[in-house]
Amino acid sequence: MPVRTDPAESDPLPDQTVDAVVIGGGAAGLNGALMLARSRRSVVVIDSGTPRNAPAEGVHGLLGLDGTPPAELYQRGRGEVRRYGGLVVSDEVTSAAPAAPSVDSDLRFTVALASGRTLSARRLLVATGLRDVLPDVPGLAEHWGHGVVHCPYCHGWEVRDEPIGILAVGPASLHHALLFRQLTDDLVFFTRGTDLDADTRSRLAARNVRVVDTPVAEVVTDADAKIYGVRLTDGEVVPRRVLAVATTMLARTEGLAGLALPMEDLPNGMGRRLVSGMAGVTDVPGVWVAGNATELTAQVGASAAAGALAGAQINAHLAVADTDAAVAATGAGTAVRA
Q1: What does the alpha-carbon distance between residue 226 and residue 292 come to, in Å, rounded to a whole number?
Q2: Quick check: 145 pLDDT over 90?
Q3: Is residue 92's pLDDT more than 50?
Q4: Rounded mean pLDDT of 96-124?
Q5: How far is CA 280 from CA 39, 232, 308, in A?
Q6: Do residue 23 and residue 155 come from a single domain?
Q7: Is 3 among the domain residues?
């Protein structure tokens, strides 16, 4: 459920082939671009303006910047990338695919944008993030990012001591309950068809977690448009101020089919991610991936760190390619002179 932020200033596209195109202007993409720009690489970030955490009031668990509004964080990041000569373009990628190698046999990619423009790049960093899919419960989606939360580390402190309800989506929700129990003494676990054995029920009871097996009908809102409770199919309303739900997390891959990047389904319906190895390398030569597109549970700090590592690796690969090209050119020149 992407939320579009205010349009950002957009830089003009270069005509020549650039060292790297970064697809995605969130924490991973911007930090990867920062590393490349600081290494004097020509880099263009394509930013659709729809970060996953746009509805949140602040990012958390990010040392030195805890509580910073997402829009402010990304605005700072764009400024830092531009400070070193990187470009940030407000647009969306409609296709990306390998192109014919250059005259020096180096890799090339063609990236097409929704605006009709195209870019040529030597390397790609995919940092598209993910989209969260909420369970189909009437009244739930409109509270996403405020009264409805998913991550105890991202939002837990802000909802501490509130009456919290866990809307179960499967086995992962049991662990969710233990984490949110750390934050409140008033926790209700709505099973929503999740099978709980006797041992699990006794463990929840030992932590004073109420288990509700009656199916959920809808989320109830008060006069201030905030969550008031959960209505069950028998008509009972269980008062709650906050609902926690483990979303299905799906890597955003729109426009990337031409890259044929490998994907992987996570167990228990948790989601689907782009597969990557160390430092974000993929099985597709010249393409790296970083952030939530491959690490679905990474917070902002971890995504930024992954982007930085991928950016450094891309620069290293480019340095080798530059040297190979220089050696080849020197050899050709020697042969001609001979």
Answers
A1: 29
A2: no
A3: yes
A4: 94
A5: 18, 45, 10
A6: no
A7: no
> What is the pTM for the complete model shown?
0.92
What gap in Å lies between CA 149 and CA 247, rounded to an integer?
9
- Which H helix or E strand runs over 29? helix 27-38
Q: Is residue 63 part of a domain?
A: yes
Q: Examine the domain organization and report whether 179 and 239 are in the same domain.
A: yes
Predicted confidence band of residue 332 (pLDDT cuts 50, 70, 90): low
Helices (H) and strands (E) in the chain, counts: 6, 19
Shared domain check, 118 and 43: yes
- Distance in Å from the first CA to the final CA of the chain: 64
In CATH, what number is assigned to the domain containing residue 115? 3.50.50.60
Count CB neighbours of 185 within 10 A.
11
CA nearest neighbour of 245 among 308, 317, 190: 190
Q: Which of 190, 218, 244 is the last residue of a domain?
A: 244
Tens of pLDDT along 199-229?
999 999 999 999 999 999 999 999 999 999 9
Using the predicted structure, report yes or no on whether residue 333 has a pLDDT greater than 60.
Answer: no
Joined together, the tokens standing for residue 317 give 């690969």
Regarding whether 252 and 127 lie in a shared domain, the answer is yes
Q: Using 50, 70 and 90 to split pLDDT, how confident is the model at 231?
A: very high
pLDDT grade for 334, boundaries at 50, 70 and 90: low
- Name the residue range of residue 327's domain: 18-131+248-337
Cβ-contact 233, 216 below 8 angstroms: yes
Q: Where among 179, 213, 244 does a domain terminate?
A: 244
Q: How far apart are CA 28 and CA 96, in angstroms?
A: 19
Q: Can you read off the two tokens belonging to residue 187?
A: 């926790």
